Amino acid sequence: MGRGLLWGAGVLAALFLLAPIVAILPLSFSAGSFLLYPLPGVSLRWYRDFFASDFWLPALWNSLLVGGAASALATALGTPAAFGLWRMRGAARAVALGVVLAPMVVPVIVVAVALLLAFGPVGLVATHAGLIVAHAALGAPFVVVTVLASLEGFDPVQLRAAAACGAGPVRAFLRVCLPQIAPGVAAGAVFAFATSLDEVVVALFIAGPAQRTLPRQMFAGLNDQISLTTAAAAAMLVGLSVLLLLVVAWLQARARRRSHARDALSPRSS
Amino acid sequence: MADPLVRFQGVRKTWRAGGPAAVEALDLDIARGELLTLLGPSGSGKTTTLMMLAGFEAPSAGRILLEGRDIARLAPHRRGIGVVFQSYALFPHMDVAGNVGFPLSVRGVGRADRDARVARALAMVRLEGLAERRPSELSGGQQQRVALARALVFEPPIVLLDEPLGALDKALREEMQLEIRHLHRRLGVTMMYVTHDQAEALTLSDRIAVFEGGRVRQLAAPRMLYERPADAFVAGFVGENNLLRGTIQERDGDECLVRLDCGPLVPAQAADCGGPGEGCVVAVRPERVAVAGVAASDLGGGAWPATLQEAIFLGDHVRLRLAFGDGGEVLAKRPAGAGALPDPGGPAAIAWPEGAAFAFREAAPRV
Q: ipTM of this model?
């Protein structure tokens, strides 16, 4: 009885979360032209339309370019930041962690306005570099969080062992620590990419016509002409996000296997 | 000591300014080629001393010289000292050859030379044929050997071992003790070994420094440490000892007479004690206490009455617990099969040879 209620509540919650997403997917295969069920027929015309369009195609490339570059930048900054935070102790650590994670907590609209004001005078508004830097700032906290989590399973005595072998701090990090936390770093990079991929608020504020990303274009598409190409774009974003989620799940499973191997290695396995 | 390899000079370590010292006024020389053990209970400063030599802790005061050069402020990776950690700290993402070859690859040793030296180091610790295994595929003892090979492969002037056998079971620990001892004798490499296990220290060491409360209480060869402990702490920590409280009655140079709190008046060597009227502790090794099943009066002088309370058979020897005087207790050990035991509760006498008892100042109360 109690179990049945629990299952019922769970299914309802999942429906609530997934139904709107699931509902949009078949529409992208509609042979008709309206956002309406039932479908008059099935076709790939909206996908053909998408890949032939100079409204959508540049936006897709922009999304991939900005997402890739922002993810690389966020990972390059977030990984050393996580390593530093991992070695910090006490109140300073709490403060530093708060600052690093701020972009996750501060409302995006506030970040967007702040970036617009800050980027204006230095000429970063309406440039690819500006959007990449902005998205890297939004993505970096995800890298910090995932890398910190994987560092929890890393034995700090190994850094001492590396030093006793003659390796300086940088080499010890690159050859001993980094290979072991690589799954966490990769998962962080994927999260940062996903963050950029579906980010629309900052893109609305600081992207120029040449930097329009896929979500930004969908937003515009809904305002101007309600075309089912938007549904096709949405379906592709969903597909890409699911793919990224699977990659993260795979990386995490790999990290877990590694940490099991490490537990077996510890002489004081408790 | 002429030209020591390592010299600690007035080294002191406090964890915070004005706080209690983990290591206090440490002056210690390590000779070339010796195996020096730092022995002590946990919190005695022995591991802190090792970590300061390795470079993972900075001394608050004093100098640490390696081959005459002050290294107290040198980064650990520039010291060229080999370290075996208690948890081994092998690199799980590298195979055995990768682990052992790591110090060489860091030093830019070429591939062919490296492979040859790794193979030699693995042969040295009897791990031939396991070069391609991951550490997680090895037993605890094998992981221990890999850690040892990794610390020796770059031929450091000194290797530090921090309780390296603590995680192994008893039989394997004893086997590895002998192996480390043989390795040390064969290679002639200087080693500093930290342990809280006095039997291990006696097995391995050329010299032992007994640590307590951040200070070295005695520095001596194992036999000397056992037979002539310098104070009550060392007497109680190294090997078993009967420690009997008393008051000094007479003192004549190195000899003294002590009235034990439990009654009897016994002679003792005045090792580290005051004059008449002062309190002391008399230490006698259990294996030096002779037990006879007759009344003490039948034995004449030098024997005291006692009552056997318990005899525990331990295979190679028997442990005897005896009531001694008024509320005192003495432990005696004797080889199994060395004559009949006195009846429990019946009359018995105990005696020890001249020079077997030492009188020490009572250990200062621990702060």
A: 0.85
